[in-house]
Specification:
The chain is an all-alpha fold and about 120 residues long. The protein is built from five helices and no strands.
């Protein structure tokens, strides 16, 4: 299918485009839920290269990456050993990781004049 035709169909609500997309999403709901949950914690913050010259920014970014690695390990361990649904694991570590990420983002934003809407 032509990408432009697909885009126009989505924008205009063409049932021939919307229904197959919704069907695909509903059939893959558990997998998409898991991907959305993990993406929230594993997508890296993009920081301009010139800011890595600042020692504090580099240190905070490295701590952020270390926490992402720890999240992967804890998530994998918990999922394998408890067979919990990923959304249930949110209770255990999202508050800590989110608060740290928000603080790291705020710190970086102070130095880069980037405005985040969280």
């Amino acid at each position: 299918m032509d990408p432009q035709h697909f885009k126009n169909g989505l924008l205009h609500g063409d049932p021939g485009i919307i229904y197959p997309v919704l069907g695909w999403m509903l059939n893959k709901s558990p997998e998409l839920t898991t991907r959305a949950y993990l993406a929230r914690f594993l997508v890296s913050i993009e920081i301009p290269e010139h800011l890595f010259g600042d020692e504090e920014i580099l240190e905070v970014y490295q701590q952020y990456k270390d926490l992402q690695d720890e999240f992967k390990e804890v998530y994998l361990y918990a999922y394998i050993h408890t067979c919990m649904h990923p959304c249930m694991l949110l209770r255990y570590f999202s508050i800590f990781l989110c608060m740290y990420c928000i603080n790291a983002c705020m710190y970086v934003c102070m130095y880069t004049s980037i405005y985040l809407y969280i």
